[in-house]
Amino acid sequence: MTAEQTGSGPSAATGEPLVVLDGVQKWYGDLHVLQDINLTVHRGEVVVVIGPSGSGKSTLCRAINRLETIDEGTISLDGQPLPAEGKALASLRAEVGMVFQSFNLFAHKTILENVTLGPIKVRGVKKAEADQHAMELLERVGVAHQAEKYPAQLSGGQQQRVAIARALAMEPKVMLFDEPTSALDPEMIKEVLDVMVDLAKRGMTMVVVTHEMGFARTAADRVVFMSDGAIVEENTPEEFFTNPSSERAQDFLSKILKH
Ligand SMILES: Nc1ncnc2c1ncn2[C@@H]1O[C@H](COP(=O)(O)OP(=O)(O)OP(=O)(O)O)[C@@H](O)[C@H]1O
Ligand SMILES: [Mg+2]
């Protein structure tokens, strides 16, 4: 089932803090890639992160998922600070779903197996139960009829919807999306965004790096604009796109609106 982009507006973000970044700093050598990042994402909230190439958006996502370490500050998920390593990290990582630009599906596993692998291996779910849940998710993202195929037999848009189903199968508390549609042909972008809008409407907490303004306006509660490793501006989508307050955001928007 996919949702229409009706422009009905974001759901009210009334939940308690779920992801909290407090004074996060990170350097790559001399490059100060995350500069004193303070960001709270509430349960049920959809935050769109936007900004020029190299501004640190992917690094921010990867830090939240602990794929990257940070040098200073803290990141906590549902009240728990991110553990540095070990079993606690693995279980916490399972609570964060991540969808990247490239689909990263396992080429030699079927679509169904791609979705059930995590629940069976990491969560210890029984195969029959994992299969049933996976089929429900594949149904939801509109690719259930492809369950027995292999990733290469699917279009990019279909593969990305499978990647979303695979992340959801772990029942994450928050979903991170890093430019999930930027590698797709234009006609496939909408089918993926529809799935994401549907997810947002169902109350999923989401951090989405994207330049898709239609999605931001439809689904985001808040837009965070990053530049040179810092959060320069935070605003409602409406306000951000029509009346950005910082010069850097104005400059960035004038560029992406032109093409
Ligand atoms: N492993 C790394 N080692 C050194 N520098 C890195 C590494 N990863 C990223 N960087 C640098 O950190 C900066 C931020 O990169 P990041 O990928 O977070 O940007 P981004 O905002 O996601 O950009 P894009 O829109 O192009 O995806 C860039 O200058 C990049 O070159
Ligand atoms: Mg990036």
TrEMBL record:
UniProt keyword list: Amino-acid transport, ATP-binding, Cell membrane, Membrane, Nucleotide-binding, Transport
Keyword check for NADP: no
Lipid bilayer topology: Peripheral membrane protein
Enzyme Commission number(s): 7.4.2.1
Catalytic class of the enzyme: translocase
Compartments (UniProt record): Cell membrane
Molecular function as annotated in GO: ATP binding; ATP hydrolysis activity; ATPase-coupled polar amino acid-transporter activity
Catalyzed reaction equations: a polar amino acid(out) + ATP + H2O = a polar amino acid(in) + ADP + phosphate + H(+)
ABC transporter domain: residues covered: 19-253
SUPFAM superfamilies, per database record: P-loop containing nucleoside triphosphate hydrolases
Listed CDD domains: ABC_HisP_GlnQ (cd03262)
Chief place of localization: membrane
Taxonomy, superkingdom: Bacteria
GO CC list: plasma membrane
Protein family membership: Belongs to the ABC transporter superfamily.
Name of the protein described by the UniProt record: ABC-type polar-amino-acid transporter
Gene name, Swiss-Prot/TrEMBL: glnQ_5
